[in-house]
């Protein structure tokens, strides 16, 4: 989703392209109702637990719907415009940077926000993996994505099915 630039060429997340930052600002003002609902809950975690979730956060060449950079956790709210090879490549990039990625369908956020937040809390605590998420479009229903971890235990994709 992000725009290339020096950070993308270098494969690092140290520099964020000016266009990516501008695009993130636009996305913050155009959040879906599901993103707004999840953001309210994540802001509450920020206040209660001292987390530091950001919304529409530029990370390297991409923009995460929500990210807790210190804990290397990215959260994506998926509607009809998500899925497929682009999201898989994006998830792979986040994992390579040491992030754990959680994806939730918009219907799950709308109808089961308590379950969504429980999964987020477990991810923050480093708890066991949540139930599988929806597969990327075109991958069928073969269960969760394969998890990869580096030596610190970071760098996992958590994929949930509703």
Automatic annotation (TrEMBL):
CDD domains recorded: Endonuclease_DUF559
What are the start and end residues of every segment in region (Disordered)? 122-162
Q: Where is the composition biased (Basic and acidic residues)?
A: 136-162
Gene3D superfamilies xrefs = VSR Endonuclease
InterPro entries linked: DUF559, Endonuclease_DUF559_bact, Restrct_endonuc-II-like
Q: Which residues form the DUF559 domain?
A: 19-124
Q: Which PANTHER family match?
A: BLL0828 PROTEIN
Name-wise, this protein is: DUF559 domain-containing protein
Q: State the organism named in the record.
A: Seohaeicola zhoushanensis
């Amino acid at each position: 989703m992000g725009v290339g630039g020096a950070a993308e060429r270098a494969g690092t997340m140290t520099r964020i392209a000016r266009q990516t930052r501008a695009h993130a600002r636009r996305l913050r003002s155009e959040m879906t109702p599901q993103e707004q609902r999840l953001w309210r809950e994540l802001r509450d975690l920020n206040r209660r637990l001292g987390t530091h979730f950001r919304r529409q956060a530029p990370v390297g060449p991409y923009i995460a719907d929500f990210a807790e950079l210190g804990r290397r956790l990215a959260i994506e709210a998926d509607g009809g415009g998500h899925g497929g090879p682009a999201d898989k490549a994006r998830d792979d990039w986040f994992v390579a940077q040491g992030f754990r990625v959680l994806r939730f369908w918009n219907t799950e956020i709308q109808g089961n926000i308590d379950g969504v937040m429980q999964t987020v809390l477990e991810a923050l605590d480093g708890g066991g993996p949540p139930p599988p998420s929806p597969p990327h479009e075109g991958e069928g229903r073969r269960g969760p994505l394969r998890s990869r971890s580096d030596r610190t235990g970071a760098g996992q994709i958590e994929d949930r099915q509703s």
